[in-house]
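Weekly structure sync, notes
Attendees: PL, DS, HV (note-taker this week)

Item 1: TldD/PmbA family protein
DS walked through the input record. Source organism listed as Acidiphilium iwatense. Sequence as pasted into the shared doc:
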Amino acid sequence: MSGLDRLGELLAAAKRAGADQADALLASGTSLSVGRRMGKVEEIERAETSTIGLRVFVGRQSAIVSAGAVDPAGFDRLAEQAVAMARVVPEDKFADIPDAPPPEDSAPLDIDDPAEPSAETLMARAAAAEEAALGFAGITNSEGAGASWSRSHIALATSRGFAGAYTRSGHGVSVSPIAGEGVAMQRDYEFSSAVHGADLGDPAELGRAAAERAVSRLNPGRPATAKLPVVYHPRVAASLLGHFTGAINGAAIARGTSFLKDSMGKPVFAPGILVIDDPRRVRGLRSRAFDGEGQAVSRRALIEDGVLTTWLLDSRSAAQLGLTTTGHASRGTSNPPSPAPSNLYLASGALSAKALIADIKLGLYVIELIGQGVNGITGDYSRGAAGFMIRDGRIAEPVAEITVAGNLREMFLHLTPANDLEFRRGTDAPTVRVEGMTMAGA
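Item 1 (cont.): predicted structure, written out as tokens:
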């Protein structure tokens, strides 16, 4: 019996139990991961999981139940539990199950790699990464290296006529070397993630890159407090996009708890800035055929020429705001839909990363952020950081135990992207420069 057939039976059980509406989600998958440290295998793990979730509505009252067993023999009991729960919770006038959308773009997403690697193949990837790191001068230890593979199957059906399914695969490799000795040790890391194994970064190159950074971070200083330009390495620049999408999340906008709540149609970033969410990117790490409510998904410019063009909406937040869903509903089997981005990125700018810092007399180059000191209501931003000073347009000495602070509204307006965007994480950004931030140090 296929996943959609099982969901059809579960929806029928919900109707028999007294539900007016229902939707059901089946998530199943297989994963394989390996880990090694200092040349020795530490972990080989294979897992197979399958969970099913049912959301029912009795009028405007709703409830969700989930189970690890997908045997249809238990569907009636599962549905009865859900309906009984729904009947004792308060009404929610905004929650609903949307109608099935019209036929959507059928272009293939190519998000399922049919080749399943063996444990030996994964171990070879991890070994190549760690051995390359350990062979770099100055590396004294390792936190280990790992490699992984997974394949997941998602199926969704609703009582409003939607039924769909897709399969996604994932490959990954990571390494974390240590440089120095005793209290002077420094670590760094590198990783690569891809839908297809053929798109993974070279493990040995990852190991060498992580090792070089770890060594370069030895003996960091703590500079004096200053107001200066801050340049974010791509792996931390992407976090700024996370703060941005949190601020345009429809649920936060409906509650009035976002510093961007009055910014629709207004400049939020500098002119020329483009921020894209593209759930239909071929081989994208977060590509999907439909959203968590079965709605059509499409590429959207969230920021165009610096101007905010849309909120991220599911059907509930859209109803609260008197709008229509943008196809950004995300959910698991045990929780209701909520808005979330997919393949999110800040488009490249015109300058190289080197040119971006060339005119900075004194600045900070951040390669690591610590903590979550961001106020979503005010936009105030304060995070621990480590990286390197910029002096006379060049990367200089390492620094640590510092804090970078500002306000996201001002940071976005004074942000300049470099031209080195790579799609590696699901949320991606090039190197970015932000003017006028405060670096709190010694």
